[in-house]
Amino acid sequence: MDHGSDRGRGMVLSIALVLAGIVPAFAQTPPKRPAAPAPAATAPAPELGEIAPEAREAARLAWEGRPEAERKAIQSGLVWSGDYAGTLDGTFGRMTLEAIRAFQARSQTVPDGIPTDDVLTRLARVEKEKKAAVGFTIVDDPATGVRLGLPLKLVGKAAKAEGGTRWASKDGRVEWRAYALPRQDLTALYDRLKREGPGHKVGYAVMRADWFVIADTVGAKRGYQRFERVGDGVRGFIVYVDATADPILDRVVIASAAAFRSQPGKEPEPVATLPETKPAAATPTTPPATPPAPATVALASTGLVVAPGRAVVVAAAVDGCRVLTVSAKPATVAGLDDGKALALLSWSDTAAVPAIRLAEAAPPVGANETVVARTANARTVAAGTATERGVRAALQAGGLSAPVVDAEGRLVGLVAAAPDVAHAFAGVVPAADYPLVPGEVLARFVGKAGGGIEPAGASAPTTSAGAVARLGDRVVAVTCEK
């Protein structure tokens, strides 16, 4: 890559250092307490039981009968109502269904997952009121060329900052920054910003070919960072919100991320808002007469392939499944271990897999570990640390049953609990403690099934990166519809 003159390289490096310097600078600032208690969060919905499979299918069909723009607008409204913390992509999944049902229950209507026009009108009013309370506005920043959503009643006017633009509250508890960094390498910036330091902890970091997202904490502040490759440089934004700030800011950050465009005019426009009134002839509230589509995924997890056409998962990942798939192929539960903690799955596949080495003992508390999960869309890798009961890491949807390896690439165990996606921040589940099914329990079960897990000390250790590479073909997406 051509980085231009020495002067240009120095400018880019200085901007990158300024970017990275935001994090420790925040850590040195003691949090200020609010002058008055923060407004109460959204009132919890009544306890909702499991929805019947037939009702879930009806809700899915009704959802998919709506135009894509309307589906995204409903998700946007549910973000502002405090019921949804996922991506505004218009797709139907468990988070969307439960968010709709929660809002229906608070609206004192039947929580069947099929919102009536009256419910959607109420949702539109809630979104309008919440946006007005913080002055949420879509802003085109001329200095950086980006578009993003900002709570203009909570932050001051735009101020010039090196590499971009800054908006901050008077008390310093809320801050947005937009950046345009010419001739900046995306990967180098990602590596710099996810580097931890005193008071700075990274809860989640994921990088794709042309963008990355990082969720972190800096002292008492929670942060969200998104950058995208644009030409030979990058554009993006960073937001930090103090833990003492109004809980509505969690929703604002999600909406801000959804509105972000690194190249306005060259990308799809931000999600539209639901209308407060709707013609009577709008989307029907009964399922359209179309052929049934593939069943909705109720629970996603990760399987560890131990032999051709055989994978192990924690039993909770497949308990009560009506439809079970591995890598989108039909699968069955071939057996459980004696303690009913693990399940062996079977499906049609003849691909051979290499054995993986077992850890000799549980790593000491605080030791570095790596969790490798697989969803239908991608493999994710989360850095973690060993705890007394398992691992602490920022796992996302699909993290249930994901294998955990130690710093030498040896298998420690499988994650035994699902990430709490209902409490995601800006769509990202923060770091939490997860129990494990120990590796020795897994090894005993796999050995009986003829699988390939080498005993402790059977081969030379590898690095965690090497183990992740070896696990690449051994982690598979498991889906379970109940």
Description:
By secondary structure, the chain is α+β, with helices and mostly antiparallel strands. Among the domains are: 8-36 and 155-245, Protein Transport Mog1p, Chain A (3-Layer(aba) Sandwich); 335-481, Thrombin, subunit H. The protein is built from 9 helices and 23 strands. The chain has helices spanning 6-27, 53-64, 68-80, 94-106, 117-134, 186-193, 248-259, 439-448, 464-471; strands at 136-140, 147-151, 159-161, 164-168, 174-181, 200-207, 211-218, 221-230, 233-242, 299-307, 310-314, 323-326, 329-336, 342-347, 356-357, 368-374, 379-386, 390-393, 403-406, 411-415, 432-438, 453-454, 475-481. It has a 7-stranded antiparallel sheet with strand order 3-4-5-9-8-7-6, sandwiched between helices. Strands 10-11-14-13-12-23 form a 6-stranded antiparallel barrel. A hairpin with a 2-residue loop joins β3 and β4 (164-168). α3 (68-80) packs across α5. The longest helix has 22 residues, at 6-27. 48% of the residues are buried.
Short description:
The chain has about 475 residues and is α+β, with helices and mostly antiparallel strands. The chain is built from nine helices and 23 strands. Among the domains are: about 10-35 and about 155-245, Protein Transport Mog1p, Chain A; about 335-480, Thrombin, subunit H (Beta Barrel), CATH 2.40.10.10.
Overall number of strands: 23
- Secondary structure category: alpha+beta
CATH architecture assignment of the domain at 335-481 = Beta Barrel
**Can you give the mean pLDDT?**
81
Envelope shape: globular
Q: What is the fold named in CATH at topology level of the domain at 335-481?
A: Thrombin, subunit H
Assigned CATH superfamily of the domain at 335-481: Trypsin-like serine proteases
The low-pLDDT segments are: 1-18, 20-41, 279-297
Radius of gyration: 24 Å
Characterize the main sheet. 7 strands, antiparallel
**Distance linking N and C termini:** 50 Å
Main β-sheet, spatial strand arrangement = 3-4-5-9-8-7-6
Fraction of residues in helix = 10-25%
* SS field, number of helical segments: 9
Strand content: 25-35%
CATH class of the domain at 335-481: Mainly Beta
